[in-house]
Batch of 2 targets.
Target 1
Amino acid sequence: MNKPETPRQQKINRVLQQEIAILLQQAIREGSVKNLLLSVTKVHVTSDLSIAKIYLSIFPVKDAPSYMDALAKNSAPLRHDLAQRMKHQLRRIPELHFYLDDSLDYIEGIDRELSQGSNPLLHRETLESRKKK
């Protein structure tokens, strides 16, 4: 049973989303990575503000697992950089846990099924199921 987020959690979610997006975009530019589009789609902070679940959308999708592995390995330096940027806003920076946001792929699958003339609601086995996180 999920409790609704408090206004404080919502504010922290928004600020973290903006700051993490800035840090990741800077890292992409500094690393001179070509043909990569990365966006922070959602951030959810736990009620005790100790863990932040960060959902990312990565294009091209075929390279996403390698980028997610790299982010998981480099979450500590990223957390440190985030702490330097937000030291006057948050006392403690939450642990960063990265997840791949597959909602766009799911929507694309539904659109593809609808354009082919079949009803994905009647034949749910044709769609890839979404994983709960």
Target 2
Amino acid sequence: MNFYTKKKRWKWVLFTMAVVIVTASLWYTNILVNKIARSERNNVRIWADALQRKANLVAYTEKFFEQIKEEERKRAEILADASKNMMSDVNSEVLDIYYKIIQGNTTIPVIMTKDNDSIIHARNVGDRINQYDVLKGDLKKEFTVYKPIRVEYLPGEYQTLYFKESTIYTELRQVLEDLNESFLSEVIENAVSVPVIITDSTMKNVLHSGNLNKDKISDSSYLAQTLKEMASENEPIEITLTESEKRYIFYQKSALQKQLQVYPFVQLGVIGLFLLISYFFFSTTRRSEQDRVWIGMSKETAHQLGTPLSSMIAWLELMKLKGIEDEGIKEIQKDIDRLENITDRFSKIGSPPSLDPVNIVDVVYNSTEYIKSRTSKKIEYNINVPGDKPIIVPVNAHLFSWVIENLIKNAIDAMSGQGKITINVHEEKKWVIIDFSDTGKGIPKTQFKAIFNPGYTSKKRGWGLGLSLSKRIIREYHKGKIFVKHSHPYKETMFRIILRKQA
């Protein structure tokens, strides 16, 4: 009794320790995951801030180039005015100023033509102008990107000044275009390993994506769901490239962070599975060892009983030959038969018993009658069988009667030799149910399963093997069930046996 009580207590202690270890592991792992998550969010924020600063730089450069463009047009207008005024009747000092303005233009390509586009002069155009007498074709197309300036240098006579952006401006504009082109690519490449999507101002059209499955992104439903999930996790980052051009950056947790969040549970699951397999393995091994002990003990008991039993049979036969016939001889014969039955029971342990179709009602009556004749008259026995009809069940009568005797003996001990034992037998479609009830001191609900363990006993003297052996006979040999159905101290404690009927 103390052994199993302490065993159960130790189970609770170990279970509590396991819960504490698991809780501590989850708690500590969660701290690590949160630290990584915070670090990742900080990195994303730093990255986003860097993007915004770069976008601001791009926007500022674009505005700066627009200013340069406007300044170059103003310079072209000044050149046109200077060329016009040089044709006017002005003093030499003014002409000298106009001349210096025209000669000082070293960056803006200009071509001055008559109304018929015949070229008068050109500047900052290069040697290719020598191939043209008239502004036409690709050259004219190149110089009409910006609106030409028409100048009336004499009444009714006009000249046209064609110009285009300066070489410096062209180079700067190319740098800007390269900067804008590489901007979004750099955003993706430096996305600190988080899944990221860049959309236009509608937040629907994807311009670039990173750390995501390219094939799935093409699926509109998957894309919409992904954008929704990203927006729910983190507010999209707005990037302003120019005054009229915006981009939105959507991002979410990295795959590493998600894996770290799941990892503790996977780890605990693997450990739990390993412990479960180990427990099953060692439990099976332990049961196998117990089986060998049971079989060895049973066969040794049968062997030890065989020798004195044979001697008793011989002495009884000798007494009969001498003509000794009285009531004592008949009782001795009954006990010898009983011992032979017990020896037969022990010899069958460990070997597959033969299950024969028998009337289970007769087995219950016979087993009860044997115990009844050897117990106190203060014990009341009641056997209830609906209709008193035979119920055929495949059992081994010797082993099953052993179970009945064990249950009745335990009931007698629980009632201290005074009370009522009730046996109810009824059948269902596929099962036969036998209930054993007594009015003893009862069994604590926490011990309903423990009482079937080998060595469990509440008596000062006892081996605690009766119920364990009964469970083995019912479950392993007859493929049935035996358990405590309920227990109310000094009112009713009920054991139930369920057996499968013959097919």
